[in-house]
Amino acid sequence: MTNIKEIVKILKKEYPDANIALRFKDTWQLLVATILSAQCTDVRVNKVTPVLFKKYKTVSDFAKASLKEFEKDIYSTGFYKNKAKGIIGSAKKILNEFNGNVPDTMEGLTSLPGIGRKTSNVILSSGFGIVVGIVVDTHVIRLSGRLGLTENKGPDKIEEDLMKLVPRKDWGIVSHLLILHGRKICKARRPLCSDCAINKLCPSAFKGGI
Hints:
By secondary structure, this protein is mainly α. The chain folds into two domains: 4-18 and 134-201, Orthogonal Bundle (Endonuclease Iii, domain 2); 27-116, Hypothetical protein, domain 2 (Endonuclease III, domain 1). Helices cover 56% and strands 0% of the residues. α2 (27-36) packs across α3 (42-55), α2 (27-36) packs antiparallel against α6 and α2 (27-36) packs antiparallel against α8 (117-128). It starts with a helix and ends in a 26-residue tail after the last helix.
């Protein structure tokens, strides 16, 4: 079995500033940015959100937004129809059921339209400092498989496997470390195994990507 503690230790040295790349000023902005980041780069989202947050300043502004106009505002992030519905729907529900405040529980967050466990984990961890799980995105899925941490393919099952292996104190940081490593070194098509600080601990190293 891969030594996840050693991997985390090495990656912490490689990426001492590992943190969320999305830019936001409060938990509502984080919620919006996280929904927009699905199937989209953080760089692109960070270009769209400053304009968006200038136009729509409060949760109420988002709730009142015209769906068609909002779709155009976020068009460049992809999957804009679903994202627009999710964001506007979440704003309405937060106003009606949560006194205008983003909920700080997994149950509350996953009750919002367009928000699943991954998005909820991001908001809880980076917005509230509450860590109840591990964020599993495409990079985390890929690296978890390559590192032999899971044989599962679905994000929920992968999260369960990682939560059993990774010390709880590292649940919040491990996804940031794997995401950064995935972007820089352990790329989808051609992983740079010779430049990898954890290649000695990786059962997939120098096998050309899996």
